[in-house]
Design goal:
The model has no long low-confidence stretch (mean pLDDT 95). This protein has 316 residues and is an alpha+beta fold. The strands form 2 sheets. Strands 2-5-6-8-15-9-14-13-12-11-10 form an 11-stranded mixed sheet. A hairpin with a 2-residue loop joins strand 5 and strand 6. The longest helix is centred in the first third of the chain and has 17 residues. It contains 10 helices and 15 strands. The two termini are 26 Å apart.
Length: 316
């Protein structure tokens, strides 16, 4: 008789976890332990491994807060990650094994944060139906804006008009390994000035992540006469590039340098054969629930909305 077991991750599982991520059908580099643990002091890790007999068939990046388990709150997305050949019926079994494990360990609530669908051409919706059938509710939605690079680009005429004008301003786009100019001269001061916040990643953290994932994390900056005026930090996966950070100086705003950089990168990654350019969410804590200026800006760059649902399930 087939036996399914669930265990909590510990450091002895480091290699088997990362080996699994390398061959899983719905994983990105964010699930590698070297990425997850750069901020391990901020979260009580409670990641899970699911075995069929002796074979690892699924993992769940997660952390614990009180009697609740969360798809890891330090990651942009999460959810169950599956072995490459796992079919939908087996996903149901995996989910039930996880829910039973949570019940036995006295958890009361499970918050589930899936990966946006466009990250995987073969789909990633198997678990949604089974969550619904077990009483999960949609706790919240986020509008995730992304450009489908497999379709003709739909950049607005006004953006293209300014883009053609900017091309004559002698701006240089550089990919650089040194994140210091962007973090110190653009990103940190502008976030502080405009929103009174800091980047999610400190400069030291992004440099460490770049060192660990040199092919996945890239920095593109715009210079004029050797002065940095804008930049975008990219997280690159097999099918998708995500603009993790984008900012411009006041001088860069005058030249619309950030639009200039976005359009160049959209065209660059379209030529490279990427499927989507992910520009992230536009949600905001206001009456409408979103930032209308950001929504308009991203739509004018060719983005469309891909809703991401966040689930909550009571453990019974």
């Amino acid at each position: 008789m087939t036996k399914y077991t669930v265990k909590k991750y510990d450091q002895n599982d480091y290699k088997i976890w990362n080996d699994f991520i390398a061959q899983a059908k719905n994983a990105t580099f964010l699930f590698h332990r070297d990425f997850m643990e750069y901020h391990k002091d901020r979260f009580e890790d409670f990641s899970l491994l699911v075995y069929q007999d002796e074979k690892l068939i699924s993992i769940l990046p997660a952390n614990k807060v009180g009697n609740s388990l969360y798809s890891h709150q330090g990651l942009t997305y999460g959810g169950l990650v599956y072995a490459s050949k796992l079919k939908a019926e087996k996903v149901e079994v995996v989910l039930d094994a996880v829910l039973l494990f949570l019940k036995e360990n006295l958890f009361e609530t499970f918050y589930y944060k899936p990966i946006p669908n466009f990250y995987f051409p073969e789909g990633n919706n198997e678990v949604d139906f089974f969550l619904f059938k077990r009483g999960a509710v949609i706790e919240r939605k986020e509008m995730n804006l992304a450009v489908n690079l497999e379709l003709p680009l739909q950049i607005s005429k006004s953006k293209l008009k300014h883009f053609r004008r900017i091309e004559d301003l002698d701006l240089d786009i550089m990919e650089e390994d040194d994140f210091n100019p962007f973090w110190e001269k653009i990103l940190e001061p502008r976030l502080l000035e405009k929103f009174n916040v800091k980047p999610v990643h400190t400069k030291e953290e992004i440099l460490l992540l770049k060192q660990n994932f040199p092919e996945n994390i890239r920095q593109y900056s715009v210079y004029q006469n050797d002065e940095i005026i804008a930049g975008i930090t990219i997280f690159e996966t097999e099918n998708v590039v995500k603009s993790q950070y984008g900012a411009t100086s006041k001088k860069g705003e005058e030249f619309r340098a950030l639009d200039f950089l976005f359009i160049n990168l959209i065209e660059k990654y379209k030529r490279k054969g990427k499927r989507f350019f992910d520009m992230g969410i536009v949600n905001e804590e206001n009456e409408s629930g979103y930032h209308s200026g950001l929504l308009k800006q991203k739509e004018e760059l060719g983005c469309t909305v891909y809703n991401q649902d966040f689930y909550k399930i009571e453990i019974k």
